[in-house]
Amino acid sequence: xxxxxKIASFKQDLASSKHVVFLTGAGISTHSxxxxxxxxxxxxxxxxxxxxxxxxxxxxxxxxxxFHNFVMKNMYFPQALPNKxxxxxxxxxxEKGDLITQNIDRxxxxxxxxxxxxxxxxxYDIYCTKCQKKVDYQAYEKxxxxxxxxxxxxxxxxxxxxxxxxxxxxxxxEIMRKSDLVVxxxxxxxxxxxxxxxxxxxxAAKIWLINKTSIPATGISEIIGDALExxxxx
Length: 234
Hints:
By secondary structure, the protein is of the alpha/beta class. The chain folds into 2 domains: 1-34 and 81-120 and 162-234, TPP-binding domain (Rossmann fold, 3-Layer(aba) Sandwich), CATH 3.40.50.1220; 35-76 and 122-157, SIR2/SIRT2 'Small Domain'. 32% of the residues lie in helices and 18% in strands. The protein has helices at 4-16, 51-54, 57-62, 64-74, 84-96, 107-110, 137-142, 166-178, 227-232, and strands at residues 20-24, 97-101, 116-118, 121-128, 153-157, 181-185, 206-211, 220-224. The chain has a 6-stranded parallel sheet, sandwiched between helices. Strands 4-5 form a two-stranded antiparallel ribbon.
């Protein structure tokens, strides 16, 4: 059962903070019907090859059909809608905060959040790798080849082996340094360099973890429970 006293304390910290930064992962969007990655029901469970191979630049260009089939079958959920967590985070961010998310499903922006930094990119930022022109989801769904130039189409997400956009890293560090409250939610917090962001926080910032499991970090006030129940009570 979720600790109501801790929720009350968390709510008080949110109210008194001047600038909040949320660090979120796949556990936020599971409540919108989007599976996570590594759980028993996650998209990586039972795959024919390691995800580090399938979701790589080598596969994108060397075996584009495999790459395309995998992302279309497992990663795109265009009908998914934001849930209460997305909406509450959006409300707080638009008032006095920022969100740095690992999620690539655009649900935070759909929720109206105007202060979202998509650390790993966005599935719907689709473009041709040959001519660089933007491609809409419907066209990409039909074919991974661009009809204009026969180039390979890809989503604008960070693949395994690719570097995070330097501007994204710089902006993330700036946000961490200016925030007086850090809220981690819906992430195992083991993927780097995202997990490293905590090292750049304001030393005076308090940290809250809203998660079903603990994470390998110290100095954290924890609510080990379902994020949907916690945010529904705010």
